[in-house]
Amino acid sequence: MSGEVKLVGFLCNWCSYAGADMAGTARMKQPANLRVVRLPCTGRVNPLLVLKAFKSGADGVLVSGCHPGDCHYNEGNYYARRRLELLARMLPVYGIEPERFRYTWVSAAEGARWAQVVAEFTAQVESLGRLDSAAALPEQIFEGRPADE
Amino acid sequence: MRIGVFVCQCGTNIAGTVATEAVAQAALSMRDVLHAESIQYSCSEPGQRAIIAAVQQQGLTRVVLAACSPRMHENTFRRTVSEAGLNPFMFEMVNIREQCSWIHANTDEATIKATDLVRKGVARVRAQRPLFGGTVPATRKVLVIGGGVAGIQTALDIADTGIPVTLLERESTIGGNMARLDKTFPTLDCSSCILTPRMVDARQHKNITLMVNSEVEQVRGYLGNFEIDIRKKATCVIEEKCTGCMVCQEKCPGQAPDEFNLGMGPGKAISVPFPQAVPLIAKLRKEYCRQFIKGKCGVCEKVCPAGAIDYEQEDEIVTENFGAVVVATGYDTFDWQGAFPEYGGGHFPDVITSLQYERMLSASGPTGGHVRRPSNGEEPRNIVFVSCVGSRDESLGRPFCCSVGCMHIAKQTILTKEHIPASQSYVFYIDIRAGGKGYEEFTRRAQREFGAIYLRGRVGKIFPRGGRLAVQGTDTLAGEPVEVEADLVVLATGLSGAAGAEELARKLNISYDRYGFLSEGHPKLKPVETNTGGIYLAGACQAPRDIPDSVAQAGATAAKVAGLLARGEIETSPVVAEVDRVRCVGCFKCRDVCPYSAIETEWLRSGSDVAQVIPSLCHGCGVCTVACPPGAISLNGFTDNQMIAEIVEVLR
Prior knowledge:
The complex is a heterodimer of chains A (149) and B (652). With 149 residues, chain A is an alpha/beta fold. Chain A is 35% helix and 15% strand. Chain A has a 4-stranded parallel sheet, sandwiched between helices. In chain A, α1 links the parallel β1 and β2 (34-39). In chain A, α1 packs across α4 (111-128). Chain B is an alpha/beta fold and 652 residues long. Chain B has 5 domains: 3-126, Rossmann fold, CATH 3.40.50; 142-233 and 315-331 and 497-565, FAD/NAD(P)-binding domain, CATH 3.50.50.60; 247-303, no CATH class; 335-493, FAD/NAD(P)-binding domain, CATH 3.50.50.60; 577-636, Alpha-Beta Plaits. Chain B has 18 helices and 34 strands. In chain B, the strands form 12 sheets. A 5-stranded parallel sheet of chain B has the order 10-7-6-18-29, covered by helices on one side. In chain B, strands 20-27-21-22-23 form a 5-stranded parallel sheet. A 4-stranded parallel sheet of chain B has the order 2-1-3-4, with helices on both faces. In chain B, α6 packs across α7 (191-204), α6 runs parallel beside α15 and α11 runs parallel beside α12 (405-419). Chain B starts with a strand and ends with a helix. Chains A and B meet through α1, β2, α2 and α3 of A and α3, α4, α5, α17 and α18 of B.
């Protein structure tokens, strides 16, 4: 897997995660580069998490939530859109091509669309190759809190 | 910390692609994992027993299960670990079926991915702490939206359990589309003879409150405790006074399209939709009323013996509390005119839809139950039925089956023959879909006993010729073009979710598809629930559905709702936000972004004020956690530490 790109996807539990499940139930084959992290809402996606993923070795990061207007929590995806729009513009500052990052909307009924998004995004990042210079990101980024125990 | 990892084979569903033993083996080298095994069917009784036994024998404190989607069985296994003596949240489910084995063909790739995902799950559960939910009292009252047959049946079934129901209908009468039907397949029962008594039952039931001319305006609250604003639309008729005598309708000089009869007859600006309407009240449509257009008329006010007319009436907003909501908004037929210029695009009066034809067949319809050509009022001889107009048509972006068209065409050919024995029916069809009980036999009867001629193929063109309509199509079985001279053409139009269903879905926070149908929680496990707790579906608002299925689903929905409200209280999820008082600086950015106003001020003895989450209001979206500058607010089950650990480990 060393030559292959590694992708992380942050998915809203209510729409895109269910859409991805639907694609699976329908046996829609997809590239195996993506690792999905399930979240209650894209509004939970801290832009620092995206940077953390790049710093930790991701070659591409995908965020997918409910269509604008359809957020399970009314407005979480609007917050996500603002935050991630800004993040996308900042990525070149860290030497990360903006094409390595995508946020998209896939509903629970759109299994086929999800499979297509995965295929397209994987191909897009593959054309860029591995990310070899997340070096511009600070060494200590989003370290979380000291563990309780 | 003692973590156990279980890798489900799911028969060959997972093991067919993922080397589950290898994943379990790899898990043994992950941090704090001291037990790992592959299980054939983890959700089976022996599978669940094996997990419980391992937890108890090895003293495991946390469990990771790699199996199907957590959306499928997370709650099942939370109960399992709970039975083993652990907190149900010390459990993490990793999806290696829907999002791994089923979407990959290469075993090596899939096994590597499954191992990565298990490592992610272990990292997540390591950073987890026990969580405890609470309970809140639930309002023992249900709102059913839509008074068609599904809504009526749901309301009756819920009301029979003793739970009060408000049945909301945006038209002036309940009954929905079924009230428009003359007969029903496959028994040829009279539709109104089945429906009307149910409508009256709903009106008279002591636990049902009927609200007509009403729509949902705004929804607040959550499972068990919804607060809903209902708009009662002004109709210029005082409901309590109107007796339904129809004198106003008789005397009204304002011509208007007849909504109930789908434009098949003359209508009035003030009218009672049909004689069996429940409640039997008139409704005035301002857009056609001379009093409102010209500023003078007042005929209805003068003739009304009950004094029920009030031109000054205004919309009214009523706010009520409900514990659960059932959506039963039904369907609309496909608006075919724009999409089918080759069928005349609505310009030929003798091309009508099957629902319009139904009104013509009905004794209470505009022709008094006589089949007539709309163009000249003559009795038709040749009648052509066209199936799948706006169904199973990918070129229109409508690939799905309307599920009722084949059957109502068969029914209408039979009824046509009964109305006009000398008539001949022709049916252009793609396939005959007759899957229900007694359905196949019914379509055969239409052909054998009633002489309907079935032609397999699509109609390409309809055009007027010598006072009749030439219907040109292809007989794909004979392999040749066919042409039928028709006096009347009936189009079996496809179905979509009712107009306004999407808007309602947004207010209720439930999903819908691009045809306006509302999405169930899971096609098999949660067929009448939605993804939003406390909101349920019944009938054709979910997908095209016939009357038997709608009524059956209504009963299922009622059982679910009654089950929800039976105990009078509802368990709340502990996946809510929490504030670390020491870190909070009192900036209240969290309060600004919270969609549920779930954050209030807590005054500390030290004199500073910090944010505080009201757990019963928090829905657990986590928007606040990102907004918090010092990272003082975190979401249980999705803490920063958990997310970070997941990312770092999955990429290791």
